Structure formats: structure tokens, C-alpha cells
Request: fold
Amino acid sequence: MRKYTKEQLLFYLKKLSNELQKTPTLKDMNKNKKYPSGNTYFKRFESWNNSLKGAGLKINVRQYNKTELIENLKILAKELGRIPRPKDLKGKKWASSYSTYRKYFRYWKGGIREAGITKTGTANLKVFAKKK
Reply:
């Protein structure tokens, strides 16, 4: 596995931006095998947006705050009628990605717990406000 410096990563990000004539998305980066993977950028800069900022490029990823993520989990739980799973996020344009939940809550169940989503019995889903 190759180790890139921050300067090298920013160079490749700017280069891809010039090739595409736009700010690259994470998907753009991952499609180009001649460039470092998006995961490499996450490891080095902690987020795609931080990578873009470091390269002086326009942010193209929506950022969520913890409150929005919790509310989205509650909405998803009500919509599904059960405790949501990470795969339930697929196709939900209004919800963030699984990696965003991991970033804020360390693991999926942490987000579920903070949202106050619990299952009682077999069919009843309860969504409680978090107690302080």
C-alpha cells in the first residue's frame, strides 16, 4: 500500500479537478484508478469536504449535523416500522450515508440509541426522546 503525503493528495485532487473541469466528487475519485482512493482522503483529512477545502476547491458534499442525523433515523424508523439497518439508507436522497453516521456515533447502534429508537414486543416500534 502506497503512503501519500497531504501535498501529494492535494496535487492529485487538483489535477483531477482540472481534467474534469469541475470539483470532483468522491465517486469521481474512486472511478479513476490512476488516483488515490477516496478512502485515502478520508484517512488523511477526516472528510471529503476537508480534502476539497485543503485543495482550495468548492465543497460539493452536504454536511449534516448530529440533530439532523438523529431526526433522519427517527423518520426512517417510522417509515419502515422497525429499527433501521445501514442498508436501509440506500436510495434515500434525504438521508446521509452510513459513513456519516459512523463518523458522528462511532457505530450504527450508537446512532440508533441516541435517536431513542427501541423495539418492544414484536410489532411495536417506539421512538423516545433522549433523556438527559
Q: What stands out?
A: The chain has a mean pLDDT of 86. The chain is about 50% helix and 5% strand. The beta strands are 117-120, 124-127.
